[in-house]
Amino acid sequence: MRYGPNNHEERCPEGHSTAATIATISATLAADPDVDSSAVEIRMLGPVVLLEGYITKAADRDKIISLAASIVGWENVQDRMLSRFPSQ
User: Fold this and answer.
1) Which of 11, 16, 35, 47 has the least C-beta neighbours within 10 A?
2) Ranges for the BON domain (predicted)?
């Protein structure tokens, strides 16, 4: 099913749908016990994955970006996550 020139199927050489790509990234993040991605939303804009929401540890940012990039490539990941560190 195609809805226009910016759909993911035309841009992704493997033909993955946007929903399948988001589901794969979500499952990958959920499977990693060292990363808290519960407040991170994954969206897609064409072939680009947008990571939005909040992280509570600085190390989580790098790990979340790395996991998403392992699926769609580094050039297709856009980090829009904000840091929300717990008060001490």
Assistant:
1) 11
2) 17-85
